[in-house]
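Entry:
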Amino acid sequence: MSETSIRGSSESPEQTDYDAVIVGAGFSGLYELHRLRDELGLSVKVIEKASDVGGTWYWNRYPGARCDSESHVYCYSFNDELLDEWDWSERYPEQPEVLEYLRLAADHLDLRRDIEFDTEVTTAEFDDSAGTWKIHTDDGETVRSQFFITAVGCLSKPFIPDFEGIESFEGWWTHTGKWPHDPVDFEDKQVAVVGTGATGIQIIPEIATSNPAHLTVFQRTPNYAVPARNRPLDEDDRAEIRDNYDEIFDLAHSSGFGHPFEAAYDTAEGLSMEEVEKRLEPRWEEGGFRFMLTFGDLVTSAETNEKVSEFIRQKIRETVDDPDLAEKLVPRDHYYATKRPPLHTDYYRTYNRDDVSLVDVTETPIERITPSGIRTSETEHEFDMIVYATGFDAMTGTLLQMDIQGRNGLTLEEKWEDGPKTYLGLGIHGFPNMFTITGPQSPSVLTNMPVSIEHHVEWISDAVEHLVRNDIRLIEPTKEAEESWTVHNRQVAEQTLYPTADSWYMNQNIPDKPTVFTPYIGGADLYHDTIREVAEKGYEGFELTESVTNLGQQGEQPRLRVMEGD
């Protein structure tokens, strides 16, 4: 930990309250605060709308909320003391345990003293004349900083479809992403869950085993869910993990998906279904994302994917007792993993219960919410409680909600009218000295998130250190670099099966949102090599200026490393 700032107090840009303002106190905001404050000695303020640290793990506290990356890699790798101090209890930790881990990290690194809780950023505007950011909050405060860093997460703006009459419901209702802190009692209640994505698949079995009078699930699109095979970790497990942590993290940080394992086989093309099943069955029994990585071309080969998809469909048919109901739960409209691939615990068995039923809203659409329940085109269902597991305005929703204004008053909403445009998912042309941790067009949600977060935080921190040490006031992607990366992001996605699905990866869960593939699917390993090379070449593709008046000149277009065939 650095005891001395890399910038003396007299060297800070004029009229700033802080060197950097960070929005969000989850995995990314906490680590960014530590890097900038403790390792670089800069003055930093974190603004967090929640009452505590945790980010998504603060808000998503619904029953069954659980990490789907294995616990021993869903954590920080940069601090040996944290690794030694913390023991995970399960293969896939539940929300309270992840939140407790982040609280421990915040306390261990003494981060809370520079976090302002219960405060929301309403507007952030770049001051062209001063070359600084003005950040306004809902308590009326305005602070200035040289750097503005968003650490708001990719899935943090809950979305509920605009159902007619939604406010008229007289019972209890909530979105899973705004779950109350107090326990919720489902016993003897008529309960509805709307949505069967990753969240719905987690919460539905939990509600079903909470003794409701009846649980009714409203499904629009059936999903492919793979068993998690969660289990407690014992001392032997922990000892093996500790003995191999260096190798585990090396593998995770050098892999395409941020996990310490790679595909077991190249392809299922040309294999009989019997041969495919022999390869898939052990991975199915092992559970988790290892199943998804049985074949390396899962998301690029329609033949491989269809064989894997059919394997899962057959598993659903074998699990659900009612053949007609099983067919309603079998996905046919998309390839496996082209929508977020959930892990589950007893999800399909839940439908064998007498007190659980399914409503297929493609057959009988929801027409409106009534004071007593939900009316479909066929009938009215009466409920005491409605849970909306309807997902998020992903990737860009929270960024756009903040009313971010760049050079010459350009708003981020105007900039992204036709879809997000970034350079590397890290910076945006027209928004100097602004960085987006795991922003759109970076691997983010297609990886084990802590790995991608550490890549971004460390890159941003190194960039800030380079600027400060060299008396450089401003950094901004060139227009050419941004356009090149945006085209590259689209071209790489078009080499895969992802664009064939109506998914939130494509923004298609949000009405009127541009249909574009938002994350980067070129691989976290390739991506990490790319951003490292950009830095090594003097931040190629960025314009670095020592004076505010020089802002706007264009630098050299970067030479991007791309997937074969791009």
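Confidence is low (pLDDT under 50) at residues 551-566.
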